[in-house]
Amino acid sequence: MYGEFAIKTLFGLGPSTSTRLLLLILASVAMMTVDHHFHHLSKVRQTISVAMYPIEYLAGLPAKVYNWGSESLSGRNKLLRNNAELRADQIRLELRLQKLTTLEQENTRLREMLSSAKYFKEERILIGELLSVDLDPYQQRIVVNKGTRDGVYEGQPLLGARGIIGQIDKAGPFNSVALLVSDPNHALLGVIARSGQRSLVVGTGNIQQLELLHLTSTADIQIGDLVITSGLDDRYPSDYPVAEITSIKQVSGDPFVKIEAKPLVELNSIREVLLIWPSAADADYSAQNIQENKLENTLENSGDKNVVIQNSGTRN
Which of 103, 253, 272, 275 sits in a 20 to 30 Å window from 150, CA-based? Predict the structure, then answer.
């Protein structure tokens, strides 16, 4: 028994681990030297490389998937940021364009107002801006940013580019309250431009409708006629557009007809108003018209009109 163990131990002894490692290193160096000089191991190396490729590919696949996902996510985030920046730039440009369009429209309105002011040749004009609007059916008024420190006074007429807007009702130091022509408490003496027929034009509480009072069915008036200021109420300049006749109705049992007109100014969309200070010549002309109107009415009753012709004057 002991002899068998001794024989196995004797034959089981071999080179040590260090010796084996040294032999492997020497063999590797020898093979590399031979391969370097004679290239005998090229085919072996290629075969091993082909055999190892799937393993290498699978080993590197997780890293490739991770890199691809990171790049895709990074690219998507970058596209989202670029899209957001482009959208913000678009909004800024649209707002700028809208502002330029608004300024252009405002300049157009101001030019129209100034053109209408030149028609009257007033000594002084002033453009006011709206601060607030009240379009209640029982009270239609606006607040403008001009007051007594600017020379505004109660009863001062407000004009627009297309017609009469109203008049100052209350003037404060820094702003004023104006009565629109559509206010139920507003009235002015108007004239039918075509026929010269006079009528009292009053507000109805509807910004799209005025009413002409005290006209009979025999009055020379037609739908589409233009109503202008007479200049006889010592308030508004003469010959300025007010409204256009839209309806003529005969009321049963009433000697007067119901006549409706639409203001030429879009009262629900005004932003600026033109305040005017009538010149001395305009004031004298208005007073002269009032006196001539009274004289004409008196002479019409007496049947003598020669005196009216002799006393009628012309505006300077």
Answer: 103
